[in-house]
Amino acid sequence: MYCEERDNLAAFLDGELEPGEAERLRRHIEGCAECREYLALLKRSYDALEYVEPVEVPEGLGTRVLAGARKRSRVPMFAAAAGLVAAALVFTWLSTKPGVGPAPVEDPQVAWAAGLTGEEQGVVENMDILEDYDILSDLDLLAQYDTLAGFEEFPEIEAI
Amino acid sequence: MNGGSPSSAADPDTQLMREFTAGNEEAFDRIVKNFEHRVYGTIYRYVGSRAAAEDCAQEVFLRLYRMKKTYKPTARLSTLIYRITTNLCLNFIRDERRRRMVSLDDRKNDGSIAIGALIRDERAEDVSAALEARERAEIVRRALGRILPRQRVALVLHRFEGLSYAGIADVMETNVAAVKSLLSRARASLAEALRADIEAGNL
Question: pLDDT (tens digit, 9 = 90+) per residue, B155-177?
């Protein structure tokens, strides 16, 4: 254990205590050998920081900083501009491409989709689910399904 | 904290930032000129590496530059810049630890002399006379590197940048009592790290 006033000694040295508090601590220090010794150590160790060599800013740092800030700040703006151009191009392409966007009902692709049976439309809508099936990784096995007379008779189905 | 106090309104650097946000690019040049030494110095004291200090300094000013459209003068510009600087320093130390790279207090691994070990084997008076300023600097920098990150930030701002406890509280977005505690612990760590060298008369 050490004197509980020790935690106040740095602020005392820094002149950051209220005048009344500083005076009270000053009187305490006069009568406390432990605090006097610690105060001296704090002061000497703080003074030793002067031995850290002075910092020399590298030549041309300011120029590099300015060039870097302006160059790197332009990147997002350039990217945003490129994005806008790309979006405009895609929009133009889409609006001229038949079958996409606000196309008339008699468009051939819509007619094709409308021609699918309900079952076929269900398969198309759930393609993302089908993609999760491990069975799709085995295309050879999948190809054999075409030859099957009856799905329930195919023995390997149980093993899948 | 200062907040949007009159001190920030009258502060010439804050005025420069206002001019920059209004479209005066040359005002930013002056901001960099006014602050490059303080920013670089703070980072260098903190991380102890010139290369890292330059990279971090670049990042500080890049972040400030990107505030062109969003800047609000709620504090003095110096407070804002020190805040960006210290946050980057803290991030740097955190990332560096994560990468398990060489840290300040680990320099003996790179072949430099372990001063503390040498001087305890010799007569203090002789070695003290022989110690070069560079070697003393190494002792002190190693001691600084042992101080915990937030305590070290407070210490660097106080000792090398001359900020008051209230100024540090503004930068670190905390209160004066917390700064007092950070600095007390930082000073205690420093004292313990340097005690042997001080008692041996090396510092």
Answer: 999 999 999 999 999 999 999 99
CA distances from B81 to A99, A149, B94, B133 (A): 55, 77, 20, 31
Q: Is the minimum CB–CB distance between B177 and chain A shorter than 8 Å?
A: no
Query: What is the dihedral sign for C-alpha B172, B177, B179, B182?
Result: negative
Which of A53, A64, A69 has its CB closest to that of B65? A69
Chain A residues lying within 8 Å of B160, measured CB to CB: 49, 52
Tell me: the pLDDT tens digits for B105-145? 554 444 443 444 333 444 555 555 446 677 888 899 999 99
Nearest CB partner across the interface for B50, out of A38, A58, A72:
A58
CA–CA distances in Å: residue B32 to residues A7, A59, B57, B79, B172: 38, 14, 10, 15, 21
Quote the pLDDT of residue A154: 39
Residue at A124: amino acid letter: V
- Residues on A contacting B at a C-beta cutoff of 8 Å: 6-11, 14, 16, 38, 41-42, 44-46, 48-49, 51-53, 55, 57-58, 61-62, 64-66, 68-70, 72-73
* A111: Cα within 13 Å, side-chain hemisphere: 6
Highest mean pLDDT among A89-103, A123-137, B71-85: B71-85
Residue ranges per structural domain of chain B? 1-101, 107-203
Structural class in CATH, domain B1-101: mainly alpha
pLDDT(B202) > 90: no
Please tell me the class of the B107-203 domain.
mainly alpha
Q: Do B57 and A38 touch (CB under 8 A)?
A: no
Which value does ipTM take for this structure? 0.73
Q: Which two tokens stand for residue B37?
A: 């030494």
Please report where in the chains the tokens 């390997």 appear, as a residue: A156
B203·A48 Cβ contact <8 A: yes
Helix (H) or strand (E) holding B159: helix B149-159
